Predict the 3D structure of the following.
Amino acid sequence: MDFREGTHSVVNQYHPEIFTGTSISRFQETPNLILGSLPAEMSKLLKPSMKPVMLKKEQFLYQAEDRLEYLYFPETAVISEFKILDDGRMVEIAVTGKEGGIGLSSLFSDSHFAQNCTQVSQAGSAQRVEAVAFEKLLRQNEKIRTGLSHFVEIYIRQISQKAICNMYHSVKERLCTWLLMVQDRCGRRILNLTHEQIARTLGVYRPSVTCIAQELRDGHLIDYTRGGIVIRDRRRIEQAACSCYLEVGYTAPVF
């Protein structure tokens, strides 16, 4: 099924300070909440090892067990981490946007290897940082390590919640939760998604996604455009989502 043109706008209601509040005014060089929250002297040390990059949709950043040469701190991109099921399907276990960093959890566990398959869900910008340089910053600054432990705790909580969600909640609930989480992290009106991509992310078959998407469209909760999906009624999408959506929030770290 092709996505068709919609005419309705989207209002970001979850964690509005991430998008419009004064809390982001201090992030002068990058909208990534972790990098933007670093003290000026730490940012200066890290800057020679940092490079802005544009990530393409469905681009793989790591395969499981790849050696970590770089960390990625999304700005407008959204990145998913997957596990491979026994039947070959992939299922998403975590999604990260401007609130986090890809590869941080491995450094915190003193590993230099990717724990999961990592793929770009929504194309956009990110800051790429040499893993060795960031690890050195962590080892030399206990304050930074303590501040980032909050992100790692939320990341672990998200993985744990995803496991529960995938086992006990309906595909419709999971789909609504995932749409909200993606929009929270990229802040875009139109989410560049296909039914095939959503099915792959949720670890279900495409016909299930197509039926549910049509139901949501008929109920005027979403619409299709040639670019993807538009959330027309965010409040009702939140009502249709499972409780996992409220369980996994995100905030800027404090250093």
